[in-house]
Amino acid sequence: MATEYERKRLENIRRNDEMMAALNVRAKASLLSAATKRSRDESKSFKKKKSKPETPIVMRKSLRTRGLDPDTVGLPDWFSDYPKRMASTPPPSAPLQKSSARLLAPLPFHKAYDGEGSCKKFVETMVNVDVATVKDNCSSNRRRSSRLSNVKEEHVLSRERNLVKDDSPMINGYLKKEVVKGEKIEFDMEHLSLESHNVARVVPGRIFVVKFMPCENVKLLAAGDKLGNVGFWNLDCGDDENDGIYMFHPHTSPVSSLVFQQNSFSKVISSSYDGLIRLMDVEKSVFDLVYSCDDAIFSLSQRPNDDQSFYFCEGYGMLNVWDIRAGKSSFKWDLHEHRINSIDFNPQNPHVMATSSTDGSACLWDLRSMGSTTPKTLKTVNHSRAVHSAYFSPSGLSLATTSVDNHIGILSGVNFEDTSMISHDNTTNRWISTFRGVWGWDDSYIFVANRSSKGVDVISTKLKRTVKELQDPLMKAIPCRLHCHPLNVGVLAGSTAGGQVYVWTPK
């Protein structure tokens, strides 16, 4: 029998059921529950799809870590660390670096010129170096080379034969007895100085090559940088509107070599990593296209007394001989397993050529015995790492090599059979150009950059060590690439990764 409490409870349940049935609450609750569950399932499904994107997520990396060039041109052209060479305030509209595509056609001056003001004075200076001046300098070069070598003509001929065929002890003994070292040029390195007016920013990018024009009367140099610029600096014209600096942009990649034509200084050959070789003809005011290829051109040189051909490295290890008159290649040889970093010719025997390569070797070749067959080396010197230069001494009796293995190699003797290795810190990074030791004005000294002191080391070939260091407070960066003026003793140029050029002169 149910109690009174139980009856009331059951009555309340019945009324609540009737009320909920009248309001249709259970049906609406079922619909709401189903909608909530479906929304929850769709949300889970959406998140699951997002967790597996169709394309991979690309992490942001700087251009430097990806091995790419910066997307800006760096400092503007008018910038300089030295107030002598820059205005107190930047110009209102500093010109930006050109970034045009590679042009396979002649490039007029008005399109290539990328400096401030006009290049009219530069053109006049170059044109005024007339044929008579060039002939005088060529005669001076020949007289000086003859004086430096101090070797009779018959001895030179005997040595040439000996380089081709090294099996005659009679000739060997005769040459060893008769050949003497080149004449030593007397000058005091203590009197070399760096003045503020001989410091300037010639190009905006890292300099790969710097060269003096081989002329006694005009102190002018050219510099090629990483951005494809070729800048000219006339040190005797520091008072004009451009401070004697004129910059052109004939290439789109690093300039690897610059060569002043031997019989016409108003013509300059430039090669570049963009695969182009251009001939700057100042009289015509144009950069003519001489050669083009799809591979980078890492080095270029001309033989003494031969201005109608040039030798250059195309791609990796290929040496190409180009005939300017015929407009075609006369020879091609695979000389190295990797790229050729430098090409140089013996000043006393132009048939003998020296090459240096990233494959860790420097080689001597006799062009007369190469022909179209597989060439054979006269002499090979091996380093444990890349060799970035191999240059003959002014007398032609020695060869200096510079390697990343922290050694300067010196080859001497009648057949370059004597090899000496001098320890020197040649370590660099990707932001500065590799070191290349260059000969001074005789066979006594080699000049090479010093990384720690930001100076220039002077190495004695006799003592086989550094005997002097050129330093100055004006030098604020490492002078990686050097060049000694071929005619003016004591004039030395050093170039940096920031586009600056320092010129040491006698006091």
Question: What does this molecule look like?
Answer:
This is WD repeat-containing protein 76. InterPro entries: WD40/YVTN_repeat-like_dom_sf, WD40_repeat_CS, WD40_repeat_dom_sf, WD40_rpt, WD_repeat_DNA-damage-binding. WD repeats lie at residues 333-375. By secondary structure, the protein is an alpha+beta fold. The chain has a domain at 188-506: 7 Propeller (Methylamine Dehydrogenase, Chain H), CATH 2.130.10. It is 20% helix and 32% strand. It has helices spanning 4-23, 25-50, 109-112, 120-128, 131-149, 153-164, 169-178, and strands spanning 107-108, 192-201, 207-212, 220-225, 230-234, 245-248, 255-260, 267-272, 276-281, 286-292, 297-301, 309-314, 318-323, 328-334, 340-345, 352-357, 361-366, 379-382, 387-392, 399-403, 407-412, 418-423, 438-439, 445-450, 455-460, 465-470, 481-484, 492-495, 500-506. The strands form 7 sheets. It has a 5-stranded antiparallel sheet. Helix 6 runs antiparallel to helix 7 (169-178). The longest helix is centred in the first third of the chain and has 26 residues, at 25-50. The chain is elongated. Mean pLDDT is 81; it is low at 46-52, 76-99 and 143-180.
Q: Outline the low-pLDDT stretches.
A: 46-52, 76-99, 143-180
Strand order of the largest sheet: 1-10-9-8-7
Mean of the pLDDT scores? 81
**CATH-defined fold name of the domain at 188-506:** Methylamine Dehydrogenase, Chain H
Count the beta strands: 29
Going by CATH, what is the homologous superfamily of the domain at 188-506?
YVTN repeat-like/Quinoprotein amine dehydrogenase
